[in-house]
Amino acid sequence: MQRENYIKWIIRLSLLVLLFLCGWLLLKLAPFWVPVLTILKAVLFPFFIAVFITYLLHPLVEILHRKGMPRSLSILCIYLLFFGGTGYALYKGIPYMILQIRELASNLPTISKTYQSWLLEVDHHTSSLPKSIHLRIEDYIHSGERYLQKSAANVIGSIKKLVDYFFVLIIIPFLVFYFLKDIDGIKRVCWYLTPQKWRREGRQVLKEIDGSLGGYIRGQLLVGTLLGAAAMLALWLAGMPYPIILGIIIAITDIIPYFGPILGAVPVIFIAFTISVKMVLIVAGIMLVLQFIEGNILGPLIVGKSLHIHPALIIMALLAGGEIGGVAGLILAVPVFSIMKVIIVHIRNHRLQAKIDKMP
After folding, report:
1. 329: which residues sit within 8 A by CB, 6+ positions away?
2. First-last CA distance in the chain
3. pLDDT tens-digit map of 148-189
4. CA pair distance 185, 174, nearest whole angstrom
5. Mind listing the pLDDT tens digit for each residue in 264-281?
6. Cβ(241)–Cβ(255) under 8 Å?
7. Coiled-coil region(s) at which residues (predicted)?
8. Is 229 exposed, middle or buried, given 0-12, 13-18 or 19+ CB atoms closer than 10 A?
């Protein structure tokens, strides 16, 4: 028995050494496979975006089809509404968004000077505190200014890249149309390409993931879009500068549970402070009203409680996601955790069922 355990540990250590050597070799060969990966990413990017949009729109097509509308007509209606609305919004909004980003980038030094003057005032009234504290606060302000300038430049660069990739992105609507039209055939192809022993379990896992995650993703995107549009309109009516940029930030951060409303409100309050105390109060009122609507009307009505995950686990997933990937990690943390939960629970139930079947 001891000899068998010894052999098992040798095998495990050998596998670990082999994995380490494979990783080291992969890093050494990076100059060869990185260009290939870049090409594959450029080719597969529109494909994955089209698959995601198809996943979002397919239930709407099925709802219209079940209500008696011909499938082709239901696809056409949902397709035109989605891409027509998205295209019109981008056509009207992108020029204003670029203009506001440039204005924000040019006004960042002025905003920074405003906060620096406040800092000097605070420094005057807190002269008894150690000088190192004041120097640290000034460093934070300068770092924040550089970060915001860099972020604005990165956003403008990303928009320019989207223009460069226009002919690649224009493929996405065509892919979505054919995916929606031939989705049953695609399912059959995936079924036959999957090894036979995995078909039943794989279909069950995908069904459970879709049941747990599908409604949450669609609901969060819809709520974020509605909240962002309402924020743009409210901030514009209130006279806040950069309403489109701030509305987009609110829409994106609203996808993040619990922490999203706070992250979205920070830049709005930050800019409002440079205008007047009255603007801060107006903006704070707008944010509170929006969050009340989202938390008490839109959230329960559209998103509901489809994840069935304890809030403590969601917060842990958000902390881990934020540490790993920043804002992108916060957005992806809950969906990834939900998928992992479904897979782990399915494996556990499958093993328990296998043990029960083996019992005499």
Report:
1. 320, 321, 322, 323
2. 27
3. 666 656 655 665 666 656 666 788 888 888 888 888 888 888
4. 17
5. 888 888 888 878 888 888
6. no
7. none
8. middle
Give the integer Cα–Cα distance in Å for 311 and 320: 14
Query: CB-based burial of residue 319 (10 Å sphere; 0-12 exposed, 13-18 middle, 19+ buried)?
Result: middle
**Which amino acid is it at 312?**
A
Residue located via tokens 């450029």: 42
Is the model's pTM score more than 0.85?
A: no
Cα angle for residues 84, 85, 86 (degrees, 5° grid)? 95
DSSP 102-127: HHHHHHHHHHHHHHHHHHHHHHHHTT
CB 235 within 8 A of CB 247: yes
| Distance from C-alpha of 200 to C-alpha of 300, rounded to nearest angstrom | 34
Please report the sign of the dihedral spanned by the C-alpha atoms of residue 38, residue 27, residue 333, residue 290: negative
Q: What is the CB neighbour count within 10 angstroms for residue 178? A: 13
Residue 35 token pair: 């260009």
